Amino acid sequence: MTVDKIPPGPGQACCSLSKKRVGILVAVCCVAILSTYMYSLNCCKSRTEAPPKLKTSNSPSFHKTPIFAKIKANTRMPEPSVNATQSEAVAAVKQTVLFHQLLQPQNPSPTNQDDLSSLSSWSSVYEEADDDLDLVPERAAFKPQGKWKRRLPKVIIIGIKKGGTRALLNFLKAHPQVTVSGKEVHFFDRFYERGLEWYRRAMPYSYENQLTVEKTPSYFVTPQVPKLIYRMSQDVKFLLVVREPVARAISDHAQSLEKGKTTPFEEKAMLDPRKCSVDESWSAIGIGLYSLHLTRWLKYFPLDQFLFVSGKNLVANPGAEMGKVQDFLHISRTLTEKSFVFNETKGFPCLRTDENGEVRCLGKTKGRPHNPVDPRVRACLAEFYRPYNEQFYNMTGINFHWEE
Ligand code: A3P
């Protein structure tokens, strides 16, 4: 019996066709899976090769780190992207030093100061709002020259935190020959890896005949900053608002109380009040060792590039103090004593905004009331600071009379 080959019916044809399709589909799937696998391998590889992310103030742990622990632990510095070789940057980062070396009042040795470059910023991290004081009618008379563009700063207010830096910046902002960056930029102490172009863009627009000014008070106490600014420009002028260091520390502490800290000043400042032993590791104390910090700056810049603004005079006689600032910056004496009015309620001078006598004061975070501090602790601290203050007077050639 011959069995005729039965031609495939429509169902069978369909079956063999779908087998083919399945085959193709499987092959396509395999290729897809394989390429996904290869791609993910690549991804992982490049991820492991990427530089570890820098710890910035935005990192959640940053704010929680006690300040001294932060100084010791954060020995990494962002890699300079401008004018700096990698090995230089790495060398600067690797240098470490015991905190006590920084605290020796006798003969601070300039040669040792480079070692301080491993210490990170001492600033408590805080952002300040720009008290927007757009003032002084003379601004209208200003004749702009050149292009309207963002420029790197020619003047930097490098500190001192709680010295009156915001007041100085806002007073300068009222000057027609000045433009200011309202926010603290923190380029040289936190964001250096972002590069100079980033820094320039963080600056306000200005004309050629205007000075761009930025203020970041933590620069003064951050070891690597003088060197990094020097790499950017050797002609920058520095404004440093100084204040009696005990009052400064109390002001610093008042700010931290407002941010939710609760430990009383006396407890933070003293290791043992009976022995008058000061806790030098507390940043609010360390910032006040002005002579040590200044020594590092003078390794890179001559003294005549600094103006030491008296925080006390800035309150008591702002017209005269701003006169010195304007002369130092070679800008017109636009701000005079007539530009300021003492506000009884605020207890501070405020700027006259127009000829009708309207005034604008700084915000409520400036000129806070302070809790009373135990006079014995004050006396201990005054004694502690005495040699550093004297050294600072000798270095600057100015006696600020803080002991009186
Ligand atoms: P207090 O708030 O402890 O009084 P900084 O701006 O560097 O953080 O400094 C703040 C300090 O600036 C204030 O400290 C205050 O004493 C001082 N200051 C100087 N001139 C001022 C002004 N015109 N208005 C308010 N505060 C001023």
Automatic annotation (TrEMBL):
3'-phosphoadenylyl sulfate binds at residues 162-166, 243, 251, 366-370. Keywords: Disulfide bond, Glycoprotein, Membrane, Transferase, Transmembrane, Transmembrane helix. The keyword Glycoprotein applies. It holds the Pfam family Sulfotransfer_1. It comes from Patiria miniata (Bat star). The keyword Transferase applies. This is Sulfotransferase domain-containing protein. Disulfide bonds join 350-361. It comes from the Eukaryota. GO terms for molecular function: [heparan sulfate]-glucosamine 3-sulfotransferase activity. The active site is at 162 (for sulfotransferase activity). InterPro entries: NST/OST, P-loop_NTPase, Sulfotransferase_dom. The chain crosses the membrane at residues 22-41. Residues 153-371 form the Sulfotransferase domain.
